[in-house]
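Input for the complex:
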Amino acid sequence: MKYDVVVVGGRIGGSISSLFASKNDVDVLMIEKRQEIGSPVQCAEGTTFSTFETLEMKPSKKYICTEIMGAQVHAPDGSSFRVKEGMTDGNILNNKTISEGYVLDRRVFDKYLAIESAKAGTDLMVKTTVKDLIRKEGKVCGVVVKHLGETIEIKADVVIAADGIESNLAYKSGLNSLKNPDDICSCAQYELVGLDIDPNLLEFYFGRSVAPGGYSWIFPKGDGIANVGVGVRNSTETAYYYLKKFVSKFNATPVELNIGGVPLSGPMDKTYNDGFLVVGDAAGQVDPITGGGIHITASCARTAGEVAAEAVKVENVSSMFLRRYDELWRDEFEDDLKISFKLRKSFDKLSDSDMNALAEFFGNNNLEKISKLSTLKFLSKHPNLLKLLKGLL
Amino acid sequence: MKYLIENCGCCGACVAVCSNKLLELNENEIIIREGCDNCGRCEIVCPLGAIIMEDSNEV
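Predicted:
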């Protein structure tokens, strides 16, 4: 069996890579280890409108649960402040709507993307596990897969690894993909039913007793349903422990438990090799502050698919050529991810009382019009925060 | 290390941090190859407590 491009992983990164490779007229195979694409969900499912601009797709009610107009941030002492509220004409998904973002139904969205990819010409294999890379003279030139007990060799000019945080393919290709436990946010989430919440507002809760090293969230999905989750780092108790503690205050019923690890280390130093590209969580293409990765992955995956197709067409799948993918996505995201990583490192040093002070400051000021004078006044009262901010400037 | 498969949600966080690359995520379980040095990195990131170091006080 031989394809121009083999994409490993059938979630957002895989489907978008394969979609854009197929759109560029090369033969593409996408391989998913699970028997159903989109399941289980390992995500809070929030994303921005720009994801759809990247994909050149009009957002659809098929996979959008709710429209997000802002966020409420809760400090450890219970105080809170509102972040950025958008405007809507009340007609969800109308072109005139000015939206901050959406909460998706990833089960539907991921499958929708896979279907779009298949329509564009991608072949799919599900319930198929990639066991190894085929390498010749150091260059990746295919994969060895197992499907229902049968071992199959599939040759490819380019292999794109979009196989998530659990990826071992990047390592097998010779790239350094090892993650530090300090940089992994360990997450547990319930889909809860019966909540009395604002359907257009994300909520974030901070504090050592709520979510050490991370935060808890409520992402509404409409009709009193929401993803309610917790992400922790370096915690002596599990994410599930904090999840149960967090949801105990709600009179609501879980209908689904999702778990996952989110890489907050920033991207890998190198995301290409001879005949090989890596995208999405596998490449660390996730915002180190929020843990959000749908938009970044969508954009990087599109670039990966396009560059892989171009490499096949010009018959040059060397790392020299595929480096273009690395350069393109870094041009778009690397600076922001670096700043985010530095910010995260600073946030790690905040105590609960620091967070309470920051929440009070943000709560008392219009976030878009914070004056230098009010900032200086605030920092003069909190010199420890000044020290942290200095590191960022 | 002790792997409690009934607690495992197959998220793959442990695979990402295994410094000896001994772990592999199959569809419904983690495959553990020989050579574990009980470094405990996988235990730290497991959201459901499916991995416990055998010398841990909790065992």
